[in-house]
DNA sequence: AAAGGTGGCAACCGCCTAAGG
DNA sequence: TCCTTAGGCGGTTGCCACCTT
């Protein structure tokens, strides 16, 4: 044995498909359809197992396949959906016509994850080595610096979404999204040197406004989560937008200090423009204000959206990437209030 | 120029589930 | 109820082109 049960036949070819094999498979499927994949190899004259044929057809040969670079819209959708359902690639793919789960999975594993985890070197100090068990036991809320978040994203959010509930948080991470085309975000912030209008929106207001950002099919889930946990959403907008790189908004610095969440440069939505997810203006909430707010309201922020892109554009200027990637961020779910 | 490193991606592996006998 | 089989799915591997040194 040693091979998959469907591939135990003798002379089963493996590896990359040749153009001739592709042609045989296409010819057979287009004339006969694909009722039973296990019969396909023999009838099509292929030395492959049925499973391999199925995979080749679904992921590469079927006529409605959509190839080429993902559009910014697709990228947004993938990020949002992944935040909502985790690594359920088939589910995500079902929302992107012509895209396969394999393609989305590869896409995610290649540069999206890499982009998210990109360490914000300037803002991320040596991290705290609190374990997930510690978090579980404390029963309070927990926080991470960028490196830790990176670790969570890679190992827990992406790989084992089902475990996150058991180990780190009382609820799973729900959303990830970017703020692409949000130059107006920074424009709105850029001229704001005063604290005059730095008012923390109240709980419900903030929630409703964030609803505008996440106005999608996954929003009801967040709404429900909010109701269940009486949670609040805080947003950290993009820190970098091509052409506006002089604006230096640091990613959040989150320290885990005795039941207190410390966050640098947390910025909360004050105005959401439209359903496309564009944020037009934002109020800036500083660490002190956040802490004050936490104390006053006895609320723990349930979601944080931070920007991971303090670098110089998409993957150091790789122009093959969609520009919107420069503003990618992610949301974390924090445990419910105290 | 060559060797080693890296990333993208096609394909495979193993597990799960449903269906049918 | 158990066993077999096929299909579906997510994780992983390995090839290959490209990049770096």
From TrEMBL:
Protein name stated in the entry: Uncharacterized protein
Location in the cell: Nucleus
CDD domains named in the record: SANT (cd00167)
Nucleus is among the record's keywords: yes
Start and end residues of each stretch annotated as Disordered: 307-338
SMART domains recorded: SANT
UniProt keyword list: DNA-binding, Nucleus, Repeat, Transcription, Transcription regulation
HTH myb-type domain ranges (all copies): 9-61, 62-116
GO molecular function: DNA binding
Keyword Transcription regulation attributed: yes
PANTHER family: MYB DOMAIN PROTEIN 55, MYB TRANSCRIPTION FACTOR
Domain Myb-like: 9-61, 62-112
Native source species: Coffea canephora (Robusta coffee)
GO CC terms in record: nucleus
